[in-house]
Structure formats: C-alpha cells, structure tokens
Amino acid sequence: MSAVVESHDHHHGPKKGLLRWLFTTNHKDIGTLYLWFSFLMFLTGGAMAMGIRAELFEPGLQLMDPIRYNQLVTMHGLIMIFGGVMPAFVGLANWLIPMQIGAPDMALPRMNNLSFWLLPAAFTILLSTAFMEGGMPGFGWTFYAPLSTNYPNIAYFVFAIHIMGISSIMGSINVIVTIMNMRAPGLSLMKMPLFVWSWLITAYLLIAVMPVLAGAVTMLLMDAYFGTSFFDAAGGGDPVLFQHIFWFFGHPEVYIMILPAFGITSHIISTFSRKPLFGHSSMVYAMVSIAVLSFVVWAHHMFTVGMPLVAELFFMWATMLIAIPTGVKVFNWVATIFKGSITYETPMLFAIAFVVLFTIGGFSGLMLAITPADFQYHDTYFVVAHFHYVLVPGAVFSIMAAVYYWLPKWTGNMYDEKMGKLHFWLSFIGVNVTFFPQHFVGLAGMPRRYADYALQFAEWNAVSSIGAFLFGLSQLLFLYIIVKAVMAGKKATPEVWDGARGLEWTVDSPAPYHTFEVPPKITEQTKL
Amino acid sequence: MTAKTDTHQKYYVPEESRIPIVFAFAALIAGFGAANAVAGYGTTMLYVGLVAVIFTLGFWWSTVTKESQAGLDTPQLNNAYVYGMAWFIFSEVMFFFAFFGALFYIRSFAVPWLGGEGAKGIAGELLWPEFEATWPPMITPEQSLLGENAAVKGPAENMYLHSLRDIGSWLPLWNTVVLLSSSGTVHIAHIALKENNKKRFNFWLGVTVTLAFIFVILQAVEYYEAYSHLGLTLDSGVYGTTFFMLTGFHGMHVLIGGIFLLTQLVRSSGYKHFSDKEHFGFEAASWYWHFVDVVWVCLFLFVYIL
C-alpha cells in the first residue's frame, strides 16, 4: 500500500538511465518514444520504397523476383501507415495536447505507456515473418480476400494488426478523456486549439473503425484456418464483402492520417503569417463534416468490383461532397496568409507546400471519385500518385513541419535553419519528381503492383526512381538536423516564434518535465 | 499519505510503472503464440502468453483498485474512468457492427446474388445455376454444383424455431429470458447500492452473476447440440459461419462480463468496497452488462427469429 501512496508525492525531473523509457508515464517521454519509433519505421518503410523504385528503374526484373517485390510493396504500405504516420501523430498528440490545453499530463498515463509499447510488440510479430518459411505478407496492405486467405503466415499478420488496433484504441480513449476532462478552466471547446480539435475528431474515428478492422482480420483468420465462408462464394459468402468491411475501416483511416495534419498546418500558417487563423470555428465544422462523411464514402475504393448502379452513384456523390469542407479549409488557410506579414522559416515552407501539394492530391481524388472515369484510372499509377500526394507532401510534410515548429519547445535548442531549408527544398523537389510523373504513366495505363512494366513507361519510371532516391536520401539530412538540435544549438526563448499563439509558448523551452501542475487561467487576453 | 495543501485540484499521475511494459511483453508472447497455434506450431507459447496477460491485467486492476481505496482518485480522474469506459464500450459496439454488417450483407446481397436474383444475379446464374437463394442456405452453392463431393456443405438443420409446439425446448428463448432478467437484476442491485443497502446489493449482484453463468452453460449446451445432432458447424457455409461467429463472440463477451461482475461481487462482499456514492467499478461492469444484453437482443432478432 505504501508504495502506492509514495508515488503520489511531488514530481521532479525524469529518472536517469534507460529504464526511464520503459517505465515512464510522462506524456513527453511517451511522445518522444512514439516520434522516434515512427522515424525508425519511416526509414525502414522508406528503405523498402527505395527497393521498389530500384526495381522499377527500368523494365524487366533486375533485383528481385515478383514475390519479393510484392512483399516489399505490402510491408512498405503497412509500415508507413501503422508504423510511420499514425504513431508520429500520436507522438505529437502526446507532446502537445496536455501543453495546449493546460493539463499536467495525459489522463491515463500508464495506459499511455502501454499504448506505445504495444507497437514494437506488434511490429516484432509482423516483421518476424521475414525470417519464416513463406516470408512476409505479399498481398498488399489492403489484404484483399481470397488472396490473403490463401497466403502463408497470415496468422502473424492478423495478430500483429490486432495488437496495433488495441494500441490505437487505447491511445484514442486516452486522447478523448484528456481533452474532455482536463482542459484548463475557461478553455471552452470552441476556443480549443485546432491541433487538439483535429485529434479529438481523429480519436473518435479511430475508436469507431479500428474495431471494424479487427473484425475484418478476424474473419480472414477464420476463413483461412477454421473453414468459415465469409469471403468464399462456394459456401455462400462473397469476397466483395471483405472489401466493403475493409474500406469501411479504410476510408476513415485515410482521414485519421490527414486530420491531425490539418490541425498542425493551421497553427503554423497562423504563426508565420502573424495573424490569428481565419475562420477558426468553420475549421472545426469542416473537420467534423469530413469525419462524418468519411463513413459513407468507402465504396469509392471499389467502383470496378461490380456493385449495383445505385451504390456507384451514391458513393460518387457522397465522395464529391467531401470537397466542400476540404475546400473550406484550404480557403481558410489562404485567407490566413492573405495580407499577413509572412516569413518563410522551415515549418512555414513545409506548411505552404502542404497546402499546395495536398490540394493537388485532393483534386486527383476528385477525378477518381467520378465513377465512369474511375473505371479507367482504377488500379493504375494514377491512384498511386493520388494517395502519395495526400500522404507524403500531405501527412508526412505536416509531420516534418510540426517537428521543426515544436522542436525548439521540446529540446530548448533551435534547429539549424539553413539545413532545415535545404532539407525542405530537397524533399519538395524529390517528392514532386517522384510522384508527379506517376500521374502520366497512370493515365497512360500503367497498372499498380507489378514488378515489371511495358517499355513505353520506361522514361517516366526512371525519372520517378531518381526523385525517390533524392527524397529518400534527403531524409538522412532530417535525421542529422534533429540529432544536432537535440544535442546543441542556439537557445530558444519561451515564445520561440514571433507571433506564436497557444499555451505551449507560455512555458520555458525546453518545456518543464511536468508542464502545468496548476491549470492556467484562460481569459479573453490569452493568445490562443 | 502526504497532506494535500494545494487549493487547486491535483491530478494523480503515477510517477512510473512497470506494469505496462510487462503487459506489452505478455501481449507479444500471447499474440505470437496465438499465431503459432493457429498456424499449427504448438500452443505452449499461447498459453504462457495468456497466463501472463491475465496475471498482469489482474495485478494492474488490483493496483488501480488499491489506489482508489487509498483515496488517490480525484473527481477528475474518476471522470476519466467514466469517459474511458464509455468509449471502450463504443469500440466494442463497432466490433459487433462489423459482424452484423457482414450478416446483413450476406443475407441481403451475397446469397440472393449467388442465387441469380437482383442487380448482380447474373454471375450467380452463370456460376451456380442450381443454387437457390434461401435463408438460411441449407445447401451451399458448391453443394448445388457438386453434391456430396462439395468441400463446403450446408448444415443438416438450423437453429430457427420450426414449430410453435417446440417453443418450450427452444434454447434461444430461454437464453433470452435469462439474459434479459439478468439485466433487470443488475439494475435492482444498482438501486440497492444507491440506497446503501449492501446486503440487498450483494444478493442481487449474486443473482446476476449466477444468471450470467447459466447463460454461458446454456450456450455451451446449444453448441454441443448443434455439433453433435444438428450437423451445424462453423464450416457449414455462411449460415454456420455467421451463426457461430456472432453468437460465439457474444458468448465470449458474456463470459468476460460475468467475470467482471463477479469481481465486483468479490470486492463488495469480500473487501467491503463501494459506497452509495463511489462504486464506479460496479457501474462500469453493469454498463458492460447492459451492452452485452443489447447485443443479444439484436442477435435473437436477426440470427434466431428473422
């Protein structure tokens, strides 16, 4: 009993030594763990992408057999989504939400630690298949039945996904109860910073759809090993059912990977334009609308599968509706920049690139939403170009922007601005050289997920590969910049950025281990 | 315990904890072991992992209970538990939603289309010309083509009530009676607790737990009957698939809910926990129980009757 009570005593700095990271309940420590883990996964998944682009540098099979190629494509997707982007956003949520709402920590700190440490467990299981007979999953990150049900080692994949799902659900519950329950007095919902809002909505989405994913993989497992017929027409099931269930999870999942990016971008654009964000509440309503709509658009991923016409039309119109709230957001960002006194520090460069390039990804999404047109584009590189535009210069750029923006707050040191700008321009050029040509080859008919391709696509694929290597290599520069800023650098002031708004900028840099032991008072004067 | 001198409300943040990392490790063993077991590489690791998971969870919850008894919980933290439990139940709802969704899709689209009806019936007509779309499909599409040589065969009988005369021996009805009344008894227990009548509370909670385990036993009997006499198994086509997966996951949740309630009974009668004001452990268990009950009502309607 006494042990329980002692731990209630006043908190001081972090413990020394490695065990700190295993036992920690501190939101900043856990945020750091999440961010480093996602960076490690980003480099791993990136290395796989380099393998893919090396193979596609020219037609023919050079480096690997098609099975290995499929495995790389699959693992690249799974690692980047579940290991890279999602944990990076959770890491940012951990660091920022308590600071932005004036709370001492996350609401459920031990569960927070567990949410993180389940991820290495899940990826250990998933990656262990590399050392097994039959190898890693090679059925694409979408694991369509019946391809996946006939694949070796699917059981390891299924249980890895289960553990990731448990981690996500616990993380989301933690985010929701923290936000609902631990805001500083006076911080009403509509005053809440947009990153917090974006995460509140994201967490709802996660809790709603991760269990559906768990259901989908459970059905796969039962079909593969226990003789059920969910996805087997011979027994009265339907493989298309798998796609419906998967995309019912999958489409909200897409927004799970972009909503926090919206929040981040809103903060950064407002700071470096030195203006309050234009249309704060319309931003909130737009995100809520996007989240609600995300539940009724899933079948636009499967227009060509053979659905009744009514369904094709419904999903087409519902999908196009999403352009409206998204348009509201883009125009709000532009209106925030308008007549601001703008400076172009690295976070701002990434944020502006986000707005422009994400919009390109959004427009190609609109093209894909048009059912008859999608019959042409489906499963071509046009789709690959589309979702990489929303995920790489979209989600990933926003994560990089966030890291540059808040790094001085985390470490107390400014990063190297020159190097940061160099990293931005290399990434910006790299990403466009990689993915823009994929629109062309896609429209010309090059299909996705093949290790080989027809000769007429050779030039643009070579260009795309060169861009990919440029983008991949420049991320090592990112690693260098971060490590350098963690070790040393110009000392940061509490406010860090001229014009930064929000509670996190009222505390020292680096932020103290326990930020708000006493909740700050929010008044009309507080800059939010 | 240190005296709380601060006037502001202090939020309890445990300094550090070994439990989560141990649990994550246990989950790794259990997850890997489960995959090994399913893929046919032995079950030892699974059992070791499950035991580790159960022990760590038990230890975790008992720690939380001790902290709460030591008065470390602020109203704010209690609120966190309330919200947390509510959202956990919502995630469970969505898990069942996936399986009910599968059932509705199969019944309204997949089976009719396979039988040649509706918008996409043409494929069924070409591939399985003999298959007739009925619910439940007693003959699978493959069986309609290959007869006895089919790998996936339909069940010999199904779980629907065939004649009103048999209603007295129709187990699902009894299960419904048991589960619905247990939802009532848990509510009576809750009222008793609010009136601080612990004796009455313990009694009605005891009744609820008993009903929970009666339900599980009846379900086991039903499964035994299905497997040994009705020729209805997990692999008898989509009917067997949806029947066993839906009722199976529900049964698992009944078992978990029953253990959850039993724990509260032990806390109340053995350790004298809970008062008329502070009893969220019990309240959470009863929420969970009502959720399990609602799922059953849907099951009874869509799996056994309609």
TrEMBL record, chain A:
Single annotated GO MF: metal ion binding
Family, as annotated: Belongs to the heme-copper respiratory oxidase family.
Key words, A-Z: Cell membrane, Copper, Electron transport, Heme, Iron, Membrane, Metal-binding, Oxidoreductase, Respiratory chain, Translocase, Transmembrane, Transmembrane helix, Transport
Keyword Cytoplasm assigned: no
Its job: Cytochrome c oxidase is the component of the respiratory chain that catalyzes the reduction of oxygen to water. Subunits 1-3 form the functional core of the enzyme complex. CO I is the catalytic subunit of the enzyme. Electrons originating in cytochrome c are transferred via the copper A center of subunit 2 and heme A of subunit 1 to the bimetallic center formed by heme A3 and copper B.
Name listed for the protein in its UniProt record: Cytochrome c oxidase subunit 1
Reactions this protein catalyses: 4 Fe(II)-[cytochrome c] + O2 + 8 H(+)(in) = 4 Fe(III)-[cytochrome c] + 2 H2O + 4 H(+)(out)
Ranges where the Cytochrome oxidase subunit I profile domain occurs: 15-523
Pfam families: COX1
Cellular component terms (Gene Ontology): plasma membrane; respiratory chain complex IV
Top enzyme class: translocase
Subcellular location: Cell membrane; Membrane
Listed SUPFAM superfamilies: Cytochrome c oxidase subunit I-like (SSF81442)
Transmembrane regions listed in the UniProt entry: 33-52, 72-93, 114-134, 154-182, 194-222, 284-303, 315-335, 347-370, 382-407, 419-440, 460-483
This protein's encoding gene: ctaD
Record flagged with keyword Transmembrane: yes
CDD domains associated with the record: Cyt_c_Oxidase_I
Any GO BP: electron transport coupled proton transport
UniProt cross-references to InterPro entries, sorted A to Z: Cyt_c_oxase-like_su1_dom, Cyt_c_oxase-like_su1_sf, Cyt_C_Oxase_1, Cyt_c_Oxase_su1_BS, Cyt_c_oxase_su1_dom, Cyt_c_oxidase_su1_bac
Membrane topology: Multi-pass membrane protein
EC number(s) recorded for this UniProt protein: 7.1.1.9
From TrEMBL, chain B:
Boundaries of every Heme-copper oxidase subunit III family profile domain copy: 7-306
GO cellular component terms, semicolon-separated: membrane
Annotated EC: 7.1.1.9
Topology within the bilayer: Multi-pass membrane protein
Pfam families listed in its UniProt record: COX3
Keyword tags: Membrane, Translocase, Transmembrane, Transmembrane helix
CDD domains the record matches: Cyt_c_Oxidase_III (cd01665)
Chief location category: membrane
A single GO BP: aerobic electron transport chain
Places the protein is found: Membrane
Residues passing through the membrane, by range: 21-39, 45-64, 85-106, 167-189, 201-221, 241-266, 287-305
Superkingdom field: Bacteria
Family listed: Belongs to the cytochrome c oxidase subunit 3 family.
PANTHER family reported for this sequence: CYTOCHROME C OXIDASE SUBUNIT 3 (PTHR11403:SF7), CYTOCHROME C OXIDASE SUBUNIT III (PTHR11403)
The protein's name: cytochrome-c oxidase
Species: SAR86 cluster bacterium
